Amino acid sequence: MRTLTLGLAGAGRIGAMHAANIAGLRHPGQDVRLLVTDVAAAQGQAVATSVGAEFLPDLRGMLAAGIDGLVIATGTATHPDLIRAGVEAGVPVFVEKPVASSVAGALPVLEYVRDRGGVVQVGHQRRFDAGYLEAKRLYEAGELGWLHSFRAATADMAPPPVSYLATSGGLFRDCSVHDFDILRWLTGRDITEVYARGSNNGDPAIGEAGDVDTALAVVTLDDGTIGTVSATRYNGAGHDVRLELQGSKGSVMVGLDERLASRSAEPGVPFPDGTPHRTFAERFDTAYRAEMLAFVELILGERENPCPPEDAVAASRVADAAQLSLETGVSVKVEG
Q1: Which residues have a Cβ under 8 Å from the Cβ of 333 and sit 6 or more positions away?
Q2: pLDDT, tens digit, for every residue of 12-64?
């Protein structure tokens, strides 16, 4: 059996989740070995120990040890340099979104990757969720007809620390970018214009940090189809991620199951009767596992790149436009 070695840079919340998922990977004929590094050595060592991996003090040592793929789960500001390091070492790279702190910062990275023939997969895990995959299949098969509208929503049960929000780039860049990406991926259409509004009725510190706790964007696709993308940090009923596609022949909703974080106001209707998800990691647990398996398959040459960096940057352009609309109060065209 061949041993495939993955290096993981970053052992925080997302990194620890990826470490556990990598440790549990199963692929025919492959034994997966994991190396972990983090500037916070104690945290990195703890995560490595918890999954039976080896801890290395820095990325240079990890690359020198020999890896087949690099997984980047560090802070956004470090992504460009780490992507370059992986590409320069000649190994495929998986990086959590976004590619860089800004689109302007991401463009030189895209050029670097292209010039060197690098392989970079960006972490937009919704592309691996069973509901979104089925909605895409139905749409592409023509079973929905043509879309007349759509509604996408991302609702966290509670906000993360304000210290994180202050550096997140704003609600649209942090949360709604996933909706923007999935809309582009599912429909095969570009988003050309957004008009956004936001509010702050929760912790005043969020507004003081320059963010909003709830936002809504009216989105226009390149064929004129319109819809809404909403997000909030305060959905006390549970973590709620949904997409409703409404077509001329039929409609479908992703996220409509027994764990939906809502309840019916109609008499005698018990649905949904399950326990709502509490976090995004819980909601997309299976998708995150499938995403990492896809990275292994990409390394082995068994599949095409499921989320190239160009796609991730395109979604970030939409998030930037939404943020600008929020700040200016006017509709904003998405730069091509």
Answers
A1: 192, 193, 321
A2: 999 999 999 999 998 888 899 999 999 999 999 999 999 999 999 999 999 99
Residues 6+ apart with CB under 8 A from 301: none
Model pLDDT for residues 237-252, shown as the tens digit of each residue: 999 999 999 999 999 9
Fold equal for 2-118 and 127-280+315-333: no
- Residue pair 34/23 in contact (Cβ under 8 Å)? The answer is yes
Interatomic CA distance for residues 72 and 54, integer angstroms: 16
**CATH code at 127-280+315-333:** 3.30.360.10
Token pair of 229 as six digits: 């993308």
Stated pTM of the model: 0.95
- Report d(CA 155, CA 241) in Å as an integer: 6
Give the residue among 45, 117, 108 at the shortest CA–CA distance from 86.
117
CATH fold for the domain made of 2-118: Rossmann fold (3.40.50)
